[in-house]
Amino acid sequence: MERIGFVSTQSEDLQQATDDLKKTIRDINNESRRRFREMFDQVNVKFREVFQTLFEGGDASMVLTESEDLLDAGIDIVAQPPGKKLQNLNLLSGGEKALTAISLIFAIFLIKPSPFCLLDEVDAPLDDANVERFSELVKEMSRHVQFVLITHNKATMEAMHQLTGVTMNEPGISRLVAVDIDEAVQLAAM
Fold this sequence. Notes:
The protein has helices at residues 2-55, 94-111, 128-141, 154-159, 181-189, and strands at 59-64, 75-80, 116-120, 146-150, 162-170, 173-180. The N and C termini lie far apart (100 Å). The chain has 190 residues and is α+β, with helices and mostly antiparallel strands. Helix 1 crosses helix 2 (94-111). The strands form 3 sheets. The protein has a two-stranded antiparallel sheet. The chain has a two-stranded parallel sheet with strand order 3-4. The chain has a two-stranded antiparallel sheet with strand order 5-6.
């Protein structure tokens, strides 16, 4: 009889623990849905703003794909550069795709800043006008985020404050070269 009472108490404890765990999981999922929705909406607003800045007009948004559960939904990107019909991202040019991706990355950085952002050749498919707008946005955002840009684009390099590169004067011996553009301009003016 004592054994039955002990096992019954343990069974009740396990059931209570299971119920508590299920409630905790529901609470976590509800909080996750709330936070996801809040962040999604904030990023979507900034995405539209940055897109319109980089494209000098147009419209873009993120759209949740249909799903019964917000945590299982996918995200579609809808982009409409100025003067074009609303279309699938696959139909955009390489430069338009790059600017759309940059818009999304920068929108996230504006909502949740990070101390630095590393971008590797994101400006490669951009024409000169787009590089100029991209560079201006990087300059503006660099007040809050340190950017490290890996680029071969001369126009992007000209717009930056600090250049660092690798050169190989002798075969097999690499050398790091750094130039502060503002300092170089002052020296050249003398």
